[in-house]
Design goal:
- By secondary structure, the protein is α/β, with parallel strands linked by helices.
- The chain has a single domain, classed as 3-Layer(aba) Sandwich (Uracil-DNA Glycosylase, subunit E), CATH 3.40.470.
- It has eight helices and seven strands.
- The strands form two sheets. The chain has a five-stranded mixed beta sheet with strand order 2-1-5-7-6, with helices on both faces. A two-stranded antiparallel sheet has the order 3-4.
- A hairpin with a 2-residue loop joins strand 3 and strand 4.
- The chain is globular and about 40 Å long.
- It starts with 16 loop residues before the first helix and ends with a helix.
- This is Type-4 uracil-DNA glycosylase.
- Belongs to the uracil-DNA glycosylase (UDG) superfamily. Type 4 (UDGa) family.
- Keywords: 4Fe-4S, DNA damage, DNA repair, Hydrolase, Iron, Iron-sulfur, Metal-binding.
């Protein structure tokens, strides 16, 4: 695992989401800041009952500076509606705040963050959770699961089931919406994704 300085020294000790988001743009906790356009903070109500945690910003998110605004975000919006969840009531964020990619010609192709990068970025997610204090966290995909549950947790084995984060917060794991976008069995996989979100909605107090 690569050794990075980690984000601790850039995460403010106190304050709310606005202060956290302002500090994020200066983070040099790993090497991704050198290549990405910008850090992409989470967005949503400061006291959201439901927090969705994805992997990292994509190409569109990196350019626009907002989470889940690309193809996977549009699919997520549709799935949230189907599940009866108002996106405006949800805090949306990612385990890693900068876009990791490789260039193919003029295109920037998504590349999965390394374990070192996930670990280095984890103080930002911890700070978001401490401020928002969600009743339930939805884990979107393997990178978010690695960040929140550790390396032994398998989304494929536990998706759609009520679980608990190490600190006791209720959670539900599912796939990342980008995998549904790419699916050859789109209708089936979209339906399964919506079912998982419905489970999450049913668990909210």
């Amino acid at each position: 695992m690569e050794k990075f300085p980690g984000a601790e020294q850039w995460v403010p000790d106190g304050g709310g989401l606005r202060k956290l988001q302002a500090a994020l743009k200066d983070c040099r906790g790993c090497d991704l800041w050198e290549y990405a356009e910008q850090a992409v903070p989470g967005e949503g109500p400061a006291r959201a009952r439901l927090m969705l945690v994805g992997e990292q910003p994509g190409d569109v998110e990196d350019k626009e500076g907002h989470p889940f605004v690309g193809p996977a975000g549009r699919l997520l919006d549709k799935a949230l509606v189907e599940a009866g969840i108002d996106r405006g009531d949800v805090y949306l964020t990612n385990a890693v705040k900068h876009f990791r990619f490789e260039r193919r010609g003029k295109r920037r192709i998504h590349k999965t963050p390394s374990v070192g990068q996930i670990v280095a970025c984890s103080p930002w997610l911890a700070a978001e959770r401490a401020i928002v204090k969600p009743s339930l966290v939805v884990i979107l995909g393997a990178v978010a699961a690695r960040a929140l549950m550790g390396p032994g947790f398998k989304v494929t084995e536990r998706r759609g089931q009520p679980v608990e984060l190490p600190d006791g917060t209720a959670a539900v794991a599912t796939v990342h919406p980008s995998s549904v976008v790419r699916s050859e069995e789109y209708r089936r996989d979209f339906g399964l994704f919506v079912d998982d979100l419905r489970v999450a909605a049913s668990l909210l107090p």
